Amino acid sequence: MTTINKDEIVDEANCSETKLHEEKKEDEEDEDLRKLLVPDVQNLPLTPPSAVESNFATYFAPDFMKPGHDQYVYRHANGLCVIGLAPSHVAFKDEGGITAVDFNVGKSDRSGMKVTGKRKKNAQHFESNTALCKISTKNDTYIVRCCVKGSLLEVNQQLIKQPELLNVSADREGYIAIIMPKPVDWLKVKASLVSLQEYKKLKEVS
Amino acid sequence: MEKKEDELQEVLRALPSDAVKDLLSHQVCARCILRVFGVQGRAYASPSLSSLFAQHSQTQLCRLCLGILQFTYSDDTKTLLQNDNLPLLIAQTVQRQAYHFHSFSLEVSIPPIVLDNDNSLRSYMKTKYGSQPWFQQNLHIGCISAKDALKFSLVYPLEDLLECKSSMGPFRIRLTFCHAKASKGDEKCSDGAESCKRRKIGMSKIVAGPVFGERPTSSSVENDSSDCCEFLLEKANEPCHLTYFCYRTPFYFGGRYLKYSRNVSQTRWIIDDERMGEASVEEIIGGNILQACQGDSFKFHAAGREDIDVRMLGPGRPFIVEVQNARHIPSELSVKDMEKTINSMEFSLNKLVKVKNLKLVGSDGWNLMREGEAEKQKQYAALVWISRPIKDEDFQCVSSLKDLKVLQRTPIRVLHRRSPLEREKIIHWMTMETIAGSSQYFLLHLCTQAGTYIKEFVHGDLGRTHPSIGSILGCRAEILQLDVTDIKMECFLT
């Protein structure tokens, strides 16, 4: 812009100039942001680790209290344990797989408890051999147990209406319960659990 | 100087001499006499004040103010001090601390018993001199409080010594006088029950006279109705204990921060003596500001937070750094320098944190940040992988969902410290962006309600967040990376 001009013209010109300048700056920032967001495809793994693999340490309890009753324990860094059926559980061998899940075992209906608050009030304290639920197949029923001594925070209520979740994805959406053990109790039970590698060897599962 | 002395003489001459003599004989000090008669201002600061009442010895502790207005007190070593140069002492202490300031504000705290004494005296004066014309005239001014009188006696000399004005501001000088006999209401005496009863009748009936140790006589006076004009304030045996110090009220710095690293936590995070991540936003920003202001400590407050492995990009997240007891007052230029210093910090050649629009904010900066924090929307970009190749229909499927309601049970990763609840959150909009060279990865841009757990919305958290990207696309979905791309709040944008 030339320096000698009538005031109005200068102002107007400056106005649209600064506006243009601002828009340009915004575009630059957007472009910078885009560059940051797009990943380098070369570095992306073909199959990334799953959320469970990334966030939990996986253990197994083979033949828990009874042969063939294989369960898994996913332990999070914060101490919480997710309990579920391992792929080699005897129930899966029955024709038609699992048809029903009932949390009404032992003295209470596990699906009825209400745990509240940060301190997890009203959570029941269970031993590792306490029954969590009964799973039924066409011809049989099996008891699923806690495996880990601790407070029961949650059971997977979806299983009541959708027991087929166990057949399709027992390792994720078909989890059975979440338990919070005390650090001392975890150390005790950890000694009796096996790693994924050991489990595979034991059960000759691929 | 002389003019001030003349003014003081005039003020003194105007006082009713019989009442003044009466008070002096009862060991009321010079400044207390001035304040009983409603005098205000520089008279209290006059150095020749005590000599003008010279005919009466002022060596005993004033019964009204317990020596406070006589600048008589005990210090930490329990030494009794009388120092007409108290303003000088205070000024020297202040100067030693190396604060920069443009003004100072004097804060004074005195034991409540002084107020009780004032009330006792007032009833005595009313009884004895109530009919005098000067008393009637004085009524509308009343007695000046000991606090105000003390301020008058200190503020003027301090203004001269510190070479600046006294006014409300962040730099404060605090004086605290304590006395063993905190107030007459103290139930320290063995006559607990009796004095208790008396107090229950009502505050207006002050028990004048000794409450501690000695038996109260039956002629304890109640105000107004008594004929007895006895001056009942007891002798002051102990001076007050004085402590003083200066400080600055907190400075607040507001701005927005960006976090470029996936290994930097927002706040200092230490587990079992080990630091998580290589640094924290809080320490990088707060540490720099603290250093520049020469403060004692800082507090870092942000509008929300992001995980250590989540970058904060775009316009940045609003934050406030609160600095305690800053010795320096930052100028606009020095604030810009702080910003430059923070932005040029690098850890192993990588820029970790960037600060924008850093400036000093008043207390309203606080409200700006907290206001609507829970309502504001946030925008994200997530790198998502699905277990099957992306189909054309997927894009439309995802974009068509507006204000999608999602039910999230408390994610397992925070379930150990948060209440197990089911929270309904809203995903306002989503778009999928392809990544060249990949058939199963894409960038998911989404805008959500504050408080939504994005990672769980992608992978489903074992089905505890529903719907999820996986359930919407009918396959397994995993999230590899997450970035915050916008925080839709209005504060600290310039």
Describe what this molecule looks like in 3D.
The complex is a heterodimer of chains A (about 210) and B (about 500). Chain A is α+β, with helices and mostly antiparallel strands and about 210 residues long. Chain A folds into two domains: about 5-40; about 50-205, OB fold (Dihydrolipoamide Acetyltransferase, E2P), CATH 2.40.50.100. Chain A has six helices and twelve strands. In chain A, the strands form three sheets. In chain A, strands 7-10-11-3-2-1-12 form a seven-stranded antiparallel beta sheet. Chain A has a three-stranded antiparallel beta sheet with strand order 4-8-9. The radius of gyration of chain A is 28 Å and the shape is elongated. In chain B, strands 7, 12, 13, 16, 17, 18, 19, 20, 21 and 22 form a ten-stranded mixed beta sheet that branches. In chain B, strands 2-1-6-5-3-4 form a six-stranded mixed beta sheet. Chain B is α+β, with helices and mostly antiparallel strands and about 500 residues long. In chain B, helix 10 (about 280-295) runs antiparallel to helix 11 (about 330-345). Chain B has 15 helices and 22 strands. Chain B is elongated and about 105 Å long. In chain B, about 35% of the residues are buried. Helix content of chain B is about 30%, strand content about 25%. Chain B folds into three domains: about 1-210 and about 215-250, no CATH class; about 250-375, Alpha-Beta Plaits, CATH 3.30.70; about 375-490, Alpha-Beta Plaits (2-Layer Sandwich). The chains are: A alpha+beta (about 210), B alpha+beta (about 500). Chain B: Its EC number is 5.4.99.25. Chain B: InterPro entries: PsdUridine_synth_cat_dom_sf (IPR020103), Pus10-like (IPR039894), Pus10-like_C (IPR048741).
Summarize, please.
Chain B: GO terms for molecular function: RNA binding; tRNA pseudouridine(55) synthase activity. With 206 residues, chain A is α+β, with helices and mostly antiparallel strands.
